[in-house]
Every structure is written in structure tokens, then in C-alpha cells.
Amino acid sequence: MSTLDVRMTVNGEAVSESVEPRTTLVDFLRETLGLTGSHVGCEHGVCGACTVLLDGTIVRGCLTLAVQCDGASVETIEGVSDSGAIADLQEAFRRRNALQCGYCTPAMLLTAQELLARGGIPSRDTIREHLAGNYCRCTGYQAIVDAIESVAQARAKG
Ligand code: FES
Ligand code: FES
User: Fold this and answer.
1) This model's pTM is above 0.90
2) Do 70 and 14 form a contact (C-beta atoms < 8 A)?
3) CA-wise closest residue to 68 among 28, 34, 106, 35
4) Looking at the CA of 133, which ligand is closest?
5) Nearest-10 crossing angle of helices 142-157, 105-116
């Protein structure tokens, strides 16, 4: 199988690898780079477990090819977690029991971070709408919305 060279920035570090053209971004992150915080569920764009930030915008890692990310900047749960960028969201999720099995959680956190990066305090309806592409089979979402809303309010206060 022929390969293509791909260069991107992942969690602030330059990455250069040869990949098969069919390799998805989430497989590249997990299997080539060992960043297993991005999860794989449905593998066809429905569950959202594979969500990562591509140039600051959430994308489905299972519907995005690694070669499409050439020259781009990718952030995964490992990056935003290590940098402390979402420490307040993580704490709010923990405090409000907004996770149970945790399978959806990395993607939920990245999706929430993308929304909160827009600034302001989104309504609960807006939060729910923004999370609509991320399935959680455990929590019923209420606690997740509570956690995100509380962080939005806290960040707005500075
Ligand atoms: S694994 Fe990508 S959306 Fe489900
Ligand atoms: S906490 Fe289990 S799927 Fe969301």
C-alpha cells in the first residue's frame, strides 16, 4: 500500500509521518501517535466519541482522513488536559457527576471547550444543541449541561 507524507501540529508538537491515504485522523492519533484519549465508537460519524479540535474547530476523527490534516493544528484531550486549558471543565464534570463510564467524556470536554471559546454564557438550549452530536449513554445529559453552564458563568466572571 502506498503512503503519503503528512505534517501537522498535534498538541503543539510538530509531527511528520507517512500514512496510508485511507487512515482516519482518529486512527492516526491513536495508533501512530499513541494518543488513545480520542475514542472510537460507531466509526461512521454518529456518536461523536472521536471528536478532536482541528484548527480550533471540532471534527469527527473517524470521518476525517489524516492526510486532510496536512499543515493543520490538531488538539486532542491529552493536549488540552496537559495544558490546563480545560481544568475547570474537568473539575466541574467531576463535581457534578457528569460522567459515568467516561467513554464519551474526552469528546464532550472538547466540544464544550469549543463552545465556551466563543465567549459569553450560552443558554442551556444552546449548550444542548452544541452537544447534539455527542452521544452519552450513561448520564442523561443533565449533569453535563449543568457542568458546562457553571464553567461558562465562572469564566465570564473572570
Ligand atoms: S466514532 Fe466517530 S462519530 Fe462515532
Ligand atoms: S459517561 Fe458513559 S457514555 Fe457518557
Assistant:
1) yes
2) no
3) 28
4) 1
5) 40
How do strand 13-19 and strand 51-54 relate by DSSP bridges? unpaired
Consecutive 10-residue averages of pLDDT for the chain (158 residues): 95 98 98 98 98 98 98 98 98 98 98 96 98 97 98 94
Least distant ligand from the CA of 52: 1
C-alpha cell at 47: 456518536
- Indicate if ligand 2 lies below 6 Å from the C-beta of 28: no
- Which value, to the nearest 10 degrees, does the dihedral of the CA atoms of residues 89, 29, 117, 99 take? -30
Q: What DSSP string runs through 54-100?
A: ETTEEEETTTSBGGGGTT-EEE-HHHHHHHTTTHHHHHHHHHTT--S
Q: How much distance in Å is there from the Cα of 90 to the middle of ligand 1?
A: 22
